[in-house]
Design goal:
There is one protein chain. The chain is an alpha/beta fold and 320 residues long. 27% of the residues lie in helices and 20% in strands. The protein is built from 8 helices and 13 strands. The termini are far apart.
Amino acid sequence: MKLAHWRRHALLFVAASAVAGVALAEPAAKPSPPRMKPSEAATAYKKEIGRDASTWRWNIPLELPNVTHGVVRSKAMDREIGYNIYLPPSYASEANARYPVVYYFHGASGSETSDTPVVEYVISELTTGRIGEVIYVFVNAGHYGGYRDNPDTRVLAETYLMEELIPEIDRRYRTISTRAGRALMGFSMGGGGATRLALKHPDKFCAVASFAGAMDQDPNAPAGAADSRMPSDPADNVYRWAAANKEEIKTGLGLYFFVGGEDRLYGRNAAFVEYLHEQEIPFDYRVMNGLGHDLWGSMALCGAEAVRFLASHYEPKRTE
């Protein structure tokens, strides 16, 4: 497999066709980090769930390495919803310190437990001094909810995240509770959801990193090109918000995208970054030729880089 590596500012982009085939530079060769994966216990719940929202598990309280489980009571959904949180080494001893926070969005069938090994890349970058201390929160937004509100199934994922979880995390923990100290990261459904919410709310987030994101379809795509398995809301999708909030995004929101060249979602990612180029919106984009839809393969290749990318955009830890 070969990594095609772009660092793109749209104004420097020679042509939109370059998205699909021209690499500006190869990254320096380095040993691959270990390939992480969750424990069997962290994903055992998947045997019990289906597409029917009535089967979904919203609170999975397990003891997992490096994170602590917590619960938020959602008034919008009238249920308790779990999260896992990583707190940096100095958190307990530095009572006057405030920390940036990254919210990690799981993919379809995922939960607050499924992707917590991602924090190993955070710890590695922190230990080697490449990033400063940061909080990571692993959310549960419904196994197949798309990070959207769906009143028909009483799944109000966006309302929960934006109006309940984030304010409650800011209340419970010493976060930097402004957009300058808040970023998003996600895989697949979570990558698409994180991108949509970041573009929709650039006043709330300073950066987003998407891995194999389930991006919305271009509402202007030719008839017959739409994928009925992954419908998009033309009034609430990444294209609409990128256009509506273009100026704020261009100057205040870092965008990072990674996708495998053999990933079923490659076309959606390629189309969206081409659209960003047309809108002259800066972004970073990586493609791994030969890689399919693989969270842990993606993280082994660029997880650490994405962690550093987010760290380059959010406000560092500060003492008050």
